[in-house]
Design a protein that fits this description.
Layout: E1 7-14, E2 20-28, E3 34-35, E4 42-44, E5 50-52, E6 59-64, H1 67-80, H2 91-114, E7 124-135, E8 140-144, H3 147-154, E9 158-160, H4 164-168, H5 178-187, E10 194-199, E11 202-208, E12 215-221, H6 224-234, H7 243-246, H8 252-259, H9 287-304, E13 315-319, H10 326-335, E14 340-342, H11 353-366, E15 387-389
Parallel strand pairs: 1-7, 7-9, 10-13, 13-14
Antiparallel strand pairs: 1-2, 2-3, 2-6, 4-5, 7-8, 9-15, 10-11, 11-12
Helix pairs in contact: 1-2, 2-3, 6-9, 8-9, 9-10
Amino acid sequence: MTGDSIWTAIGLMSGTSMDGVDVAMITTDGHGLVLTGGGAARTRSAAGAEIRAGFEKPRVLSRPYSAGERAVLRRAVDEAKPLRDRDARPRALAEAEAVVTAAHAEAVEALLAEHGLTASDIDVVGFHGQTVLHRPEERLTVQIGDGAALAERLGIDVVHDFRAADVAAGGQGAPLAPAYHRALVMSQRMDLPVVVLNLGGVANVTWIGRDEDPIAFDTGPANALIDDWIREHTGADHDEGGAIAARGHVQADVLADLLDNPYFSAPAPKSLDRNAFDPAPLAGLSIEDGAATLVAFTAATVAMAELHFPAPARRWIVAGGGAKNPTIMEELQKRLDAPVMTAERVGWSGEYLEAQAFAYLAVRSLTGLPLSFPTTTGVKQPMTGGVLASARRSAA
């Protein structure tokens, strides 16, 4: 494969919020060329199929998890806590892995069907899987999902297990999206520095300067604690539109307890497990005050991330589910000294940014390019990663 090949890739993401599977298609060379919509130039894909370099509109889709599937995944997260072997699949994890693999296959199949595409139109699928345990200090990270089974069902090569090589080499294994964030920012020639903030279950930032390598790390919680709080008190999956938090009042003493954690002052790079923070200080609060305090906790820890940047950001671009929560967005703008805007404001797909990133990373994996860097995961040298599962395609 030549270094200037253009690939058609599908990326898949099921985040720590465990709400469903996002799937997105991009065309890319794995370097600076990333096309997610528009354009009319035609070229050849790495698999030989003729493709359009860019699409009339972004090709994306979301496949929600059912309530039963989410329950299976939550049991798997609980059962994963004592794991010491990343390949172990005790009963709940084995069941969850089957659920994850099937859901991701269905998501890809639905995207292909919606756009009249077949497996031969796609060069590679980037399959992140579902994180159930992340303890990089123990050189342990576990993402469930059967890459080989997915490749066989789809008839498309699959790159999976993206984090393991970095963790084995002493890195944090996360975040991995910074390479994609940098490609997007540089393609638009933005006034630098820029920070890309992803608000999934956990929040992470990518600081992008002019000449420096990107700096990236997890800042703290994003939606995970808020979603858990809402689920515990109402049974709902999340605080729709931030309405519950908007009615509450931040409890300063509880917020101070939550912020009293050595993680926030620890040097970057650093990363977190979904369940890294104890919600015990919230006990006794009303649902509204608890939600408001957790929103403030998320925003405050994002603001504290600025202490680790070489220079202040000129703008913050926010993606992920938290960008849809106006209460979080308002709290962020109060605490940050630069404009805060959604990814959509700059022409990106905030909801599908992580899925697009894993399509991009799959291509970089196949071409031997780095996925992680000393300034993003703390690994000693730039690292490629991912495991290739080849599809069993017929000669035709």
